[in-house]
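Design request, tokens follow.
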């Protein structure tokens, strides 16, 4: 049976309203983001704790709410351990790399590598990450 046959007019209306709202928010926020620095760093106006929370929340995915819930159902202690290991990794990464990364003033890892080495390294990293990015997108 066709999946779309289960949708009624209110489902379509909610979808259309959501899409229109996303476009409107995009145009409103476009006034505040002038360049990549504004987009990635919030124009250096965000306090450290807000940037950290933003980074943490951007790591959430569909797996968190589907796969993670399934693992928690099957083996609660394993899911608990995974999330604590994640929190510990964030704290270790912060304590080791945050200050060093801030000093580079780079927006992305690729930008840092281009400035530190040359454009050939930039090209190599971009092409080397392509298969991984495709797999991550598929997952």
């Amino acid at each position: 049976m066709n999946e779309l046959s289960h949708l009624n007019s209110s489902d379509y209306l909610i979808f259309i309203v959501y899409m229109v709202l996303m476009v409107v928010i995009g145009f409103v926020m476009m006034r505040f983001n002038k360049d990549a620095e504004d987009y990635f760093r919030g124009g250096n106006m965000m306090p450290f704790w807000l940037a950290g929370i933003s980074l943490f929340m951007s790591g959430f995915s569909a797996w968190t709410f589907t796969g993670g819930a399934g693992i928690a159902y099957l083996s609660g202690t394993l899911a608990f351990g995974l999330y604590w290991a994640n929190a510990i990794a964030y704290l270790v990464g912060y304590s080791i790399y945050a200050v060093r990364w801030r000093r580079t003033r780079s927006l992305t890892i690729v930008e840092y590598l281009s400035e530190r080495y040359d454009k050939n390294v930039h090209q190599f990293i971009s092409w080397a990450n392509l298969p991984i990015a495709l797999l991550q997108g598929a997952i």
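Comment from the thread starter after seeing the answer: thanks! Residues 25 and 62 are 23 Å apart (CA to CA).
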